[in-house]
């Protein structure tokens, strides 16, 4: 589902050749055509092929521990893992010869924003480089192909052509992805792009009279027909994510105008949310970030040093949802992040080591490079001592 250019495609059919799931399922006979008998029998057993139905294909799954399987076939775990890896590769290559399901190869900005956000967060928590690369490639694709010279987002890309004026979801979801990607890579360019797009979003979608964001851009032809959506269903609403973005960007930059927008957007929808809160879970989650407790964690140090990486690993291994993490490199007296967050000029390294500042509501605890300050007001959450 990833294009060669880096963006994510929209969807793929479940059926091929008129059969549901045929492209992804396997029969015993198909396995026996790929592998010699002994190996084929092993593959059939490991992946439970043909257990549910003899005629129809089976979805591959392993329902036993790898230790039990290794013992059964007198293999080491290392050899078993290698066997599974080799088998999957052979089957994957063989599957390429099948008739593929129809693929909807449109690349949509809003859906890519969701993917970028998920992969960037997953990369931090799970330490998966491939997730980070997927997020970077998709973000770079959107930036290079789907932002006009005037700085406006477009909604759709296909066959080398970008088009369709972007809606609120495109802006809010992609900005969310860029913020997550900044916290994963600390590449200041992603943060700058997020801020620029956020400015455009406010200019084109904000309701100056009642607060909140319209789904469509300013257009005199639409008159009073512009709608606002805050329902959080299978995907969150643009307003719910925009609220979260405003909070994070406001805290990162200390921009009081963005903070003021967060108050206005919550007032705009508070009455309807109070009637059926279960329908607006993402908005409530963003509101929880707003009212706190929430944290700004500033790290001053070389992003490539082992100590800084250790600090980041310790932070990312804990579930602290209402936080932002900012890195101020120490290599130069004036760094790029200070162009965005000028207040960081007062944050210094201690003892020539990476130093952590844990702040809440613009008030910081005593900086330290031995252990972090307390991150939660309800429970002491420390990062282990550096080694």
Automatic annotation (TrEMBL):
Sorted alphabetically, the keyword list is: Coiled coil
Q: Name one GO biological process term.
A: carbohydrate metabolic process
Record has Coiled coil as a keyword: yes
Q: Which InterPro entries match?
A: 6-hairpin_glycosidase_sf, 6hp_glycosidase-like_sf, Ssp411
Q: Which residues form a coiled coil?
A: 63-90
The reply on keyword Coiled coil is: yes
Q: Which SUPFAM superfamilies match?
A: Six-hairpin glycosidases
What name is this protein filed under? Thioredoxin domain-containing protein
Which organism was this protein described from? marine sediment metagenome
């Amino acid at each position: 589902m990833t294009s060669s250019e880096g963006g994510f495609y929209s969807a793929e059919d479940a059926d091929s050749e008129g059969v549901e799931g045929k492209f992804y399922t396997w029969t015993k006979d198909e396995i026996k055509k790929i592998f010699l008998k002994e190996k084929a029998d092993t593959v059939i057993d490991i992946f439970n092929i043909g257990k549910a139905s003899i005629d129809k294909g089976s979805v591959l799954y392993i329902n036993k521990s790898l230790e039990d399987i290794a013992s059964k076939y007198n293999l080491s775990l290392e050899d078993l893992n290698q066997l599974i890896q080799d088998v999957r590769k052979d089957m994957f290559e063989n599957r390429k010869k099948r008739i593929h399901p129809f693929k909807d190869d449109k690349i949509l900005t809003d859906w890519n924003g969701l993917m970028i956000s998920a992969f960037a967060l997953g990369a931090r928590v799970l330490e998966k480089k491939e997730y980070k690369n997927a997020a970077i490639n998709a973000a770079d694709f959107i930036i290079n192909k789907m932002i006009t010279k005037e700085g406006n987002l477009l909604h759709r890309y296909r066959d080398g052509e970008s088009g369709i004026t972007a809606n609120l979801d495109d802006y809010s979801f992609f900005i969310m992805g860029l913020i997550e990607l900044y916290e994963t890579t600390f590449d200041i360019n992603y943060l700058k792009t997020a801020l620029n797009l956020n400015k455009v979003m406010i200019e084109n979608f904000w309701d100056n009279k009642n607060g909140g964001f319209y789904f469509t851009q300013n257009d005199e032809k639409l008159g009073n027909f512009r709608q606002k959506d805050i329902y959080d269903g299978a995907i969150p609403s643009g307003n719910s994510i925009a609220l979260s973005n405003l909070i994070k960007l406001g805290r990162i930059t200390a921009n009081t105008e963005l903070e003021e927008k967060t108050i206005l957007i919550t007032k705009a929808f508070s009455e309807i949310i109070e009637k059926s809160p279960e329908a607006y879970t993402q908005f409530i989650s963003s509101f929880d970030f707003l009212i706190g407790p929430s944290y700004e964690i500033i790290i001053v140090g070389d992003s490539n040093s082992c100590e800084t990486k250790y600090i980041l690993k310790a932070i990312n291994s804990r579930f602290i949802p209402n936080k932002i993490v900012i890195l101020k490199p120490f290599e130069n007296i004036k760094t790029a992040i200070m162009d965005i967050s000028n207040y960081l000029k007062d944050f210094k390294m201690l003892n020539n080591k990476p130093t952590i500042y844990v702040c809440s509501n613009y008030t910081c605890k005593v900086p330290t490079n031995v252990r972090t300050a307390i991150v939660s007001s309800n429970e002491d959450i420390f990062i282990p001592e550096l080694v």
